[in-house]
Amino acid sequence: MICEDKKQLLNECAKIVELDGNDVRILDEAKLKSTLIDDLIYTAVFSSDQATQEAARWLIRRAGVACGIMSASIQSLYEAMGRGELKGFTVPAINIRGLTYDAAQAVFRSAIKGQVGPVIFEIARSEIDYTLQRPIEYICAVTAAAIKTGYNGPVFLQGDHFQINAKKFAADAAKETQAVKNLIWEAIEAGFYNIDIDTSTLVDLTKATVKEQQKINYSLAAELTTMIRDLEPEGITVSVGGEIGEVGGKNSTVEELQAFMEGYLEELKKGGESLKGISKISVQTGTTHGGVPLADGSVAKVKIDFAVLQKLSELARSQYGLSGAVQHGASTLPDEAFDRFPAMGTAEIHLATGFQNIIYDSSNFPKNLREKIYEYFKNEMKDEWKEKDTEEQFIYKTRKKGFGPFKLEMWHLPAQTRNELGAELEKQFTFLFDKLKVTSTQKIVEKYVQPVDVQLELPAALKG
Q1: Domain annotation for the chain: domains and CATH numbers
Q2: I want to staple 176 with a disulfide (CB 3.0 to 4.6 A). Which of 106, 168, 265, 441 is the partner?
C-alpha cells in the first residue's frame, strides 16, 4: 500500500511501531517485517505527498536502528587491510539500478546465509540520474530490505563515481565542481558514509610529466576530501576513495599511483591540519563499464591485467597504508575470473551491469514489459543510437536507462515474478561472495566496525 497522507500512514503503523520522543519503538517486529515495511518503502518511494514520503523515510531509518541496522563507514576495516592485519578477501560493491528493494533483499539473504561481513551497496552519480534514485531513496530501500530479511548489523552505503564531467568542467569548472560538492553533501546527509571521488576524468596525458598529468586530478580530489571531512558526522570517518585512471582508458601504472598520492598528500597538508586521506585507489586494468557489446548483443571477452592490479595493490598498502586497489567494471567478466581478485590482493570490486542483465534477460521478466521498454528506447532515445551500432548493441548500451522511467511498473510486478527474479539474483550474489572470499567474514566486521547512531530530525508530519 502507498500511503498518501499522514493519517493513513499512522493508521498503518498502529500497534506495530510507535513514536518514542524523537525515535521509534517496535511493538510487533513480526508484522513490521511481514507487512508494514512493504507499505513504508512503497510510500517512501511513490507517495505523491512529500510530507508523508519524508515521514515514511524517517520511520524506515529509525526502525532500522531499532532493529540493529545502522549505516556505517568501512574506514576502520580498510585501515586494518592497509596495516596488513586483514587479507585474503575482496569487498564486493554492488550497484543496484532497478528493483532496488527486491534486489537488496537478495543480497541480504545471501549475506545472512553465508555469514558475509563486508559488502557495499553503492550508486553512481550517473545512475542516480537515469534510475531516478536520489541517495535518500536508495538508503531507505536498502534499509527496508535489511529489516524485511532480518539482517542485523552495519550497512555500508557508498557514493560510487561521484565524478567530474570533463566537458562540463572545461566549460565552467566552478559550476561542475559545485555540482559534485552538492551531491556529496546530499549523500552524507542521507547516510552515505563511503564516498568514491572520481576526478580521474581530468587527467591530461598531453602533459610532459606524470605528476603534471595527474595535477588537476589530485588537487581536486584533495579539495573534495577536505569538504567531506568537514561534513562527516561526529564519530564517523567517511571512507573516501580516489581514482588515477578513467575506466575504459589506458591501464594504470606505478608511476601514476605514486604521482597522484604524492601530490594528493601534499595538497591535504596545505590547510595546516592533518586530515585523513583516501582509504583505497581505483585503477584501470582493461575493463569497460558494462562491457563491450558485440553486433549480436553479446559481450566481448575482456582481458584484465592482473599483474598491474597486484602490483598497484601491494604498492598502495606498503607505501601509503591504503587497503589496496579497486577494480571497476567487473560484473560482466567470466565466472572463472572472480577468484583471482582476492589472490591479487584487490581491496574492492565494483559490480553492476551483470545484475541488470540478469533482470532483463530472465525468462521471469515479463516479455511484454521488456518489449515496451525497448520500444521506448527506439522512440525516445534514438539520438543515442550510433550509426555503427546494430539494434542489439544499441539496446544493450541503453537499457540501463529503463529503470527510471519504468520504476513504478517494475516495482509493481506480481510478487511471484519479483520473488523469482530475486532468487536468480541471490544465486549470483552467493556465487560472487564465495569467489571473493567474503563468506564467513561476519566476525571481522563485528571486530573492526562500530557503527555510530546519527540522530535524525523528526519530520514535520510526525510532530505533535
Answers
A1: 6-67 (no CATH), 70-359+415-448 (3.20.20.70)
A2: 168
